[in-house]
Amino acid sequence: MTVRAAPRPVGTVTRGTTNPNRLRRMDRWIAATHGAELRRAADPVAVDLGYGAAPWTAVELLHRLRTVAPRARVTGVEIEPARVAAARPYEREGLVFLRGGFEVPVAGRPVLVRAANVLRQYDEDEVAAVWRRLCARLAPADPATGSRGGLLVEGTCDEIGRRHVWVALGPEGPRTVTFATRLGSLEHPSDLAERLPKALIHRNVPGEPVHAFLRDFDRAWAAAAPYASYGARQRWIRAVRDLTADWPVTDGPGRWRQGEVTVRWEALAPRGRLPGHPGRERSP
């Protein structure tokens, strides 16, 4: 009998840097905005793709998702076999670890794929293909139930999770960009530029929408300086409220109070061809 070798995982080994609580801001946002989809799903599987050299982020994701979706299950996926072996002792009910990459080696279609600090180490021209591959693995939308389908959350944060920017994508492609920060550490909103995901970080130059957004955010932040006497949170809320006059902000004060703001992807997408959407062009 011929035994077939296991398929080679898609992707390359990354540095694997991780820390406890590094992704808490992203997890908090996912639980708040995607909890209903997880509760609705017949098989609420979430994937922590590229969890790194230690399994902390997968363990924490399970805990945080179960606060809003008690049946949620998490699969940690890593391309490096030694990292999978090191994580196996942390397996428990609802949490397993597998070797794999962008092919996402889980049965069925996951309701959530979180890929944090993974594409940061790839080239910009590789992002579109990875996004397409991962979006194709997501649970499909179901108009009969009102489901918008699974969610891919792809972004970058600093080593201790104070500053984070991520793109949220559905089966149809990118939807929004979220900026999240520990407000007490922020001097200017444009400080978040260094944490832009790979699809945007090289586009933070004059003439590109993301550069214009951060410029306007800094101006709104400066104009909101009088609110600093009430605390950084009130200053942030006022600055974001001013931004809504010119930018399609999709959330409200409840999220702004958390040091977040979410904007429609189309407003920040790079000029020219949009990553993940072959043939679709953005007007100059």
What key attributes describe this structure?
single chain; 284 residues; alpha/beta; eight-stranded mixed beta sheet; two-stranded antiparallel sheet; globular; disordered N terminus
What does this structure look like?
There is one protein chain. This protein is α/β, with parallel strands linked by helices and 284 residues long. It contains nine helices and ten strands. The strands form two sheets. It has an eight-stranded mixed beta sheet. Strands 9-10 form a two-stranded antiparallel ribbon. A hairpin with a 7-residue loop joins strand 9 (272-273) and strand 10. The termini are far apart. The relative contact order is 0.12. Mean pLDDT is 92; it is low at 1-5 and 274-284.
